[in-house]
Amino acid sequence: MIECVVKNWQGESAGTASLDLRVANEDNAPHIVHRALVRQLNNARQGTASTKTRSEVRGGGRKPWRQKGTGRARAGSIRSPLWRGGGVIFGPKPRDYSVKMNRKERRLALRTALQSRAEDLIVVQDFANELPRPKTKELAQALARWGVGENETALLIVSERDEMVYLSARNISSIKLISAGNLNVFDLLAADKIVATASALEKVQEVYGD
User: Fold this and answer.
1) Alpha carbon 80 to chain centroid distance?
2) Mind listing the pLDDT tens digit for each residue in 4-23?
């Protein structure tokens, strides 16, 4: 179980929150999280890279010169892979990089990844009402009060997307804003700090606390 201090908009203690998730055992945890991470990165690949073989390159139907008597090496087509402008040997072709993983394993990996970042987790009160209009500077100052360093990246988890919070956060390059329903292993592991609202933590417990 994770026990966290909840901070208010000014960065002061305003209560506690807990998160109780079923995670993988210590022996299997690195393996299952790694599998989930590889799956996510592979599934994000488009797989559209394509090169032309010698049979697909335009031209080259006529033999460049006769077989014998010229003193040059024999050649049958100017589109040979050995020629400039020729086909490509063993080049990439469109393919599907996706990797399958059971739903129960994916959820277990996500819970395990979140649990492993317990030391970097910062829980704050819902602050949407503190931003009646987009204010990037005020959100950046609040993040500093909560303990996010100037040169640190942070994953900001909210229960539901709020337009004012989104507009305030989108211009801060070191912040990534996601909703609790869109948690993923890569974002959880990539950020230096994880900032979650209390309601987002409750939603994570509700959705993934099986």
Assistant:
1) 41
2) 888 898 888 888 888 888 88
pTM score: 0.80
Q: What would the pLDDT profile of 115-131 be if each residue is shown by its tens digit? A: 998 898 999 998 888 88
- Profile the chain (210 residues) by mean pLDDT over runs of 10 residues: 86 85 88 95 95 94 94 95 95 95 93 90 89 90 90 92 90 91 92 92 84
The three state secondary structure string of the chain is CEEEEEECCCCCEEEEEEECCCCCCCCCHHHHHHHHHHHHHHHCCCCCCCCCCCCCCCCCCCCCCCCCCCCCCCCCCCCCCCCCCCCCCCCCCCCCCCCCCCHHHHHHHHHHHHHHCHHHEEEECCCHHHCCCCCHHHHHHHHHHHCCCCCCCEEEEECCCCHHHHHHHCCCCCEEEEEHHHCCHHHHHHCCEEEEEHHHHHHHHHHHCC
CA 50 to chain centre: 25
Pair type for strands 2-7 and 13-19: antiparallel
